[in-house]
Structure formats: structure tokens, C-alpha cells
Write a structure and sequence with these properties.
The chain is an all-alpha fold. 68% of the residues lie in helices and 0% in strands. The protein has helices at 11-27, 34-55, 59-81.
Length: 91
């Protein structure tokens, strides 16, 4: 039996996803220079702010979403940061 499960995306999830993506881009300047990584991260954070402003995200929902995402994305960020091409930047 095949189940069709979907999760409705919310503006809070979009904001948190963009914030997480910005954090990964900022601390992982393998494909960019350090300045380039910071610029990209700032641009992505600006996108998160725009979504938050446009959608009028409830601050308590946003904070709860951040807390759950921190648990979910922690493993993803660790996997990315400890990939072979990233290891030299940590030592």
C-alpha cells in the first residue's frame, strides 16, 4: 500500500529554510571566496526577511518552527560541513 503524505509549507517554514541556507552558505565558502559566501548569505537572509515581512508571520510560530528546524537541519548541516571538500576549512 502506498501512502501519499504531504506537508503543507508555510511562510514560517520558508523563512527558516532560507535562514538555514544562509547559515550554510556563510560557513561553507568552498565554492566562493569568503566575501562571496558572506554576500550570498546576506542576500539569502534578505529573501527570508522579505518573506517574513510580506507574509506577516506570527513571531511565536516562527520561533517554534526555528526550534523544530534546528533539530531537523542539524544533521543535514553536519553532513554538508563534514563532506571531504569541506574538511580542510575546519583544521
Amino acid at each position: 500500500m502506498t501512502e501519499n503524505r504531504t506537508i503543507t509549507n508555510s511562510p514560517a517554514q520558508a523563512v527558516v529554510f532560507l535562514e538555514t541556507l544562509a547559515a550554510i552558505a556563510e560557513i561553507s565558502p568552498v565554492a566562493y571566496s569568503t566575501d562571496g559566501a558572506e554576500t550570498l548569505a546576506a542576500h539569502i537572509r534578505g529573501m527570508a526577511e522579505a518573506v517574513n515581512t510580506e507574509a506577516h508571520v506570527n513571531p511565536s510560530i516562527l520561533e517554534t518552527t526555528r526550534q523544530y528546524a534546528a533539530l531537523d537541519w542539524h544533521c543535514e548541516a553536519i553532513a554538508v560541513l563534514f563532506a571531504a571538500e569541506h574538511r580542510p576549512t575546519f583544521f
